[in-house]
Every structure is written in structure tokens, then in C-alpha cells.
Amino acid sequence: MKCFILPDWPEIPSISALSTTRLGGVSRGAYDSFNLAQHVGDCHEAVIRNRSLLEEKAKLPVAPRWLKQVHGTRLVDAASSPSGNEADGCYSRERSVVCVVMTADCLPVLIADKKGEYVAAVHAGWRGLCDGIIEKAIIESNLPPERLQVWLGPAIGSAAFEVGEEVRSAFIERYVEAAGAFKVGLPGKWLADIYLLARIALQQVGVTNSYGGQFCTYSDAARFYSYRRDGVTGRMASLIWLK
Hints:
The chain is an alpha+beta fold and 243 residues long. It has one domain: CNF1/YfiH-like putative cysteine hydrolases (4-Layer Sandwich). Helix content is 22%, strand content 26%. The protein has six helices and 15 strands. The strands form four sheets. The protein has a six-stranded mixed beta sheet. A four-stranded antiparallel beta sheet has the order 1-2-15-7, with no helix packed on it. A hairpin with a 5-residue loop joins strand 8 and strand 9.
């Protein structure tokens, strides 16, 4: 198995993008092996080495602008924001600035301008997704929606993403169409399709060119970390930059 997954979208020569798997690193135990997060209890030296391996293997132009993610909707300009800034998404209009988000069940969303003038990486947990972080990243581009393409990276699948009525109600209150993204689960619970919810959000701002959505971090333990499955676990990264 490979340590990287590349978006299955039309190639844009001036843009590079990828998502890591849990494979190809040096972390051990619950973090085996390519954990890129410093905040989950993994050995500090192992994470530093994994981040170095990421830069080498992905041939990054510079170190990524790592964020302190808080399940909000704040976006920052990666070109002027230092690593460790509190936000759940970043964007760039400058070359050789690597936007990145980390996930382990939440949805990583990569956004690319077909003319190569804007890129963004978004961490969309259910709260951020419901509060409009995807729409904010699209609006921030200040570009016609038909110029943008979006990749939905590895996240928890609809057969495993169990939520309560409060989550379903929150989405339906924001998007009427969201009712179709929930199926009845155990008593008082619903199974949510986070990929469909993301596409509904994209439709609100006119974006129809979306790709990905075929993954399930929860069910594919060989390739992906899953917080809901394991509790103590690592984080994958999804990255995009203008070359």
C-alpha cells in the first residue's frame, strides 16, 4: 500500500495535492506509523521525523503551515500565517506555500482554481461543516464557482458515522436537502453521509466539480487512522500548494 493518495480530479499543471495514509512513517504502537500530529500523545521525535519524511517523499517546496485545529470555521492565509495558528482551514494565492489540514475521521477538503491562482485546505468536522466552513473557503477565493474543483479526501463513511438527532436537526435547519444525507440507525441515532453533506454545502455556492468521497477511515484500519474507531490514534494530512 502507498503512503500517499492523489486526488482523482483533472490535473492542473501548476498545482500539487495529496493526502497521506498511516503508512510509511516511524511512529509505533497506536500511532503506527505515519502520524503527523504533535497533540495526540505520540513521541515528539517520531512526529518530527515523520514530518521530515513527508517533506522528502512529497517533494514539498517548504514545510507545511500546520494549524491548531479547533472544529471552527476560521480560515487563514497560509502565506502570512505562522504554523500553530488556531484555524480549521487555510488558503494561498502565492507560490510554494503549502496549505495543510490533519484528520482522522473528519473530512479534509482540498480546493483548487483551474487557472492555478488559488488553493485551499479545509478541515470539516461536522460542526465546521454545518457552520459553513466549506462555503467560506469558496467565497474567500473570490472566483467564479465554475473555475474551482474540489476533492473530498479520506473521512468516515456513511455506514459508520453515527450521530444524534441534534446533529441531524442542525444540518436540516441549515440545508433542507440535508435530510437525504441521514439514514435511520440505532434507536435515537442516525447514520450521516459526510460526503453528501459536503456536496450539498458546495452546491450552495455553485460549485459542482467535486471528486473523491469513496473512502472510509473507520473501516479501513490498514490505511487510515480513525479517532472514532481507536480513540488514541494518529492523524493523516491533506496538502495542496501552487507550484
